[in-house]
Amino acid sequence: MPEHLSAATAQLAMILRDEVPVDLANRLAPESVFLNAAAEHGIEPLLRQHLKTTGAWERVPADIRSTLDERTRREVALEEIRKSETRAVFDSLSEAAVSALLLKGGALAYTHYATPWLRPRRDADVLVRKRDRELASGILERLGYERINSLSRDAVHTQWMFRRCRKSVSHVVDLHWAVSNRPLFARTLSFDELLADARPIAALGANVCGPGPVHALLLACIHRVAHHNDCDNLLWLYDIRLLTERMTIPEWKTFWNLATEKQVASLCAKTLALTDRYVGCVNPPQAPSAIVPRHHTNEPSARYLGGNQSAAHSLLLDVKDSQSYPARVRLLASHLFPDAAYMRAKYGARGQAALALAYARRSASAVWRLVTGSAAA
């Protein structure tokens, strides 16, 4: 049992590794704790599948089986709506000659999972070229999506979030024009690099493609560290397990060469080790050890490992990793002085005086967090 996980999460990881003890029912955490942990990690359908394929389903308390059945039925129903919605978005982008790629779980659900409803997700991550973002935004709005209020300055965000409600179901599209909001990782892989090795996702129609296996694995390793504070979410680790299980020896060699070139080898090595430890993966036992590089702890990306980063510390890292002094100034200014539309929606500032007061409060709070975060760091 991995010692850094809670008891319930460690039990979930054990089941995902198909290491199910005969006396499973006697070892499980309390039902509410166990089910809450499964929901937090987003693995309820996956958990149900593993319990069934290992023959442990009947050894699980009836209330847990009933809840997992119910939540799986919900995902099955949602998947049909997700599929239709994703296809409509990409068909509309294609009609407008906007090249786009489907990233992360939305792609992996169809390319690596036995059935897509085994891979729950809250949104569809769509990557376009920066020059196409306004056109893509307009297309989403014509489809009935509304842009969610967020910091819109490029120095802070390289994505916009859109939501549409249909049949009491909320659909969210994250429209990206870089692979990360964080300056260090935003330039890791360009749209054209990803497009060059993109693969069609036939189940979603002729207009939907996702990253090739090497790029998909690199993005999956980066995502949990860059955007989620070195998080050990089991669903994201299971994504990586499925990606690694299909990697060929030439693909592994390409992967490690690319990770070294992009200076994320240490980050990838830790992610793959976590995956192997928690949910099992091919890392890769059949590959010659010569293709796996030594850890590069001096890589800039290694600073993001370890988790426990405060918001202020994260901002300090982003400032440090910006490419130039003007870029650093723009980043800080964008956090201190967001666009007026965002401030009015965020703080309810109606008049000019209220808007000025909101800016003053935000700036003072941000400076205080930076000072205290810098001292802690």
Verbal overview:
The chain is an alpha+beta fold. It is globular, with a radius of gyration of 22 Å. A 5-stranded mixed beta sheet has the order 1-2-5-4-3. Strands 6-7 form a two-stranded antiparallel sheet. It has 4 domains: 1-60, no CATH class; 78-211, Beta Polymerase, domain 2 (2-Layer Sandwich); 213-305, no CATH class; 311-376. The chain is built from 17 helices and 7 strands.
Helical content band: 40-55%
Estimate nothing, just give the exact number of structural domains: 4
Question: Approximately what portion of the residues adopt beta-strand conformation?
Answer: 5-15%
Number of separate strands: 7
Overall 3D geometry?
globular
Task: Tell me the radius of gyration.
Answer: 22 Å
**Helix-strand topology string:** HHHHHEHEHEEEHHEEHHHHHHHH
What structural category arises from helix and sheet content?
A: alpha+beta
Order of strands, widest sheet: 1-2-5-4-3
Mind telling me the CATH class of the largest domain?
Alpha Beta
Low-confidence stretches: none
